[in-house]
């Protein structure tokens, strides 16, 4: 039964991969389409600014706003309370034994 399921899963994966490859083939086309009007390319600095610096600044602004506008009153770490009579390795006592 395992062999049959493995064969079915392999056929499904192969079929899915084949369909994805067939559907993405137009994306790999080298010929220009009608109405295609690409702009000028980005420089290295523009690319880094758009894809690295801008998201980092946006993250920092959001994190800063969350920290500044946080109205939580409990800022101190909570003290751990110790339970008397129990240690890590000790099993709990059973009643009636």
**Rg of Cα set:** 30 Å
Order of helices and strands: HH
Give the integer mean of the pLDDT values: 82
Distance from first to last alpha carbon: 48 Å
User: How many E strands?
Assistant: 0
> Unreliable segments (pLDDT under 50, ≥5 consecutive)?
none
Beta-strand content bin:
under 5%
Class derived from helix and strand content: mainly alpha
Number of helices: 2
Q: How does the major sheet shape up?
A: none
Helix content: 40-55%
Overview of this protein structure:
- By secondary structure, the chain is an all-alpha fold.
- It has helices at 2-24, 44-69.
- The longest helix is centred in the middle third of the chain and has 26 residues, at 44-69.
- The radius of gyration is 30 Å and the shape is flat.
- It starts with a helix and ends in a 28-residue tail after the last helix.
- The model has no long low-confidence stretch (mean pLDDT 82).
Set out the fold topology:
Layout: H1 2-24, H2 44-69
Give the gist of this structure:
The protein has two helices and no strands. It has 97 residues and is mainly alpha-helical.
Top keywords for this entry?
97 residues, mainly alpha, 0% strand, 2 helices, flat
């Amino acid at each position: 039964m395992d062999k049959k399921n493995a064969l079915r899963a392999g056929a499904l994966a192969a079929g899915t991969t084949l369909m994805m490859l067939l559907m993405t083939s137009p994306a790999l086309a080298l010929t220009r389409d009608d109405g295609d009007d690409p702009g000028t390319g980005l420089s290295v600095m523009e690319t880094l600014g758009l894809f690295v610096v801008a998201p980092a600044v946006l993250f920092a602004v959001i994190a800063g706003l969350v920290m500044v506008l946080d109205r939580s009153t409990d800022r101190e770490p909570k003290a751990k309370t110790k339970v008397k009579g129990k240690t890590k390795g000790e099993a709990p006592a059973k009643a009636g034994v």
